[in-house]
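> call design_seq(struct)
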């Protein structure tokens, strides 16, 4: 069995007495070793392990993780991500069990690299492990949402514990006539989008 099978979907193995009944599903449409890509059975998860990029594209959650600045503009079903950070993860999730397109409450969470203070490298070699405290690179991320329905969206930056702050979040568009473009606050890892 191809070890990458586990990334495609659930794997079930059963043992019997007749080896002629052995079968394995053809996963060549999902695992491309030449391009170094894997797609899930549903097509909602994809992994490009050559460039280091994972995408999630379901009706209720969409996002990307990996070397996002190298990936450029990432377009998903309802979400577009523009990230200047070399390495980051950006996930957009419906909080009310509705698809993102019609959700009234959406969470955007972003995380970048974190390292101990004083951590240093030379080439591929770590020269100092550093120590406390840990530092997190400020996110430089824009997220655009394509939404359905009406009503003006309000975007609230949250602190690391999930409480609302008064931090400024720059937005353009309404999500319906034009995509709701959100320039995420550089000192917040969570934003909530609320719609009437």
């Amino acid at each position: 069995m191809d070890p990458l099978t586990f990334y495609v979907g659930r794997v079930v193995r059963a043992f019997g007495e007749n080896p002629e009944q052995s079968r394995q599903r053809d996963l060549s449409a999902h695992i491309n070793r030449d391009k170094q890509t894997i797609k899930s059975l549903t097509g909602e998860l994809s992994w490009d392990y050559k460039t280091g990029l994972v995408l999630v594209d379901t009706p209720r959650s969409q996002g990307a993780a990996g070397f996002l600045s190298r990936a450029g503009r990432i377009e998903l079903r309802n979400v577009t991500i523009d990230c200047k950070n070399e390495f980051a993860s950006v996930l957009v999730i419906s909080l009310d069990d509705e698809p993102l397109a019609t959700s009234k409450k959406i969470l955007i969470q972003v995380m970048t690299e974190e390292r101990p203070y004083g951590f240093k490298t030379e080439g591929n070699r770590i020269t100092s492990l550093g120590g406390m405290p840990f530092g997190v690179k400020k996110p430089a991320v824009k997220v655009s949402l394509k939404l359905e329905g009406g009503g003006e969206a309000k975007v609230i930056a949250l602190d690391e514990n999930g409480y609302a702050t008064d931090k400024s979040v720059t937005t353009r568009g309404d999500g319906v006539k034009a995509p709701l473009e959100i320039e995420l606050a550089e000192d917040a890892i969570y934003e909530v989008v609320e719609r009437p």
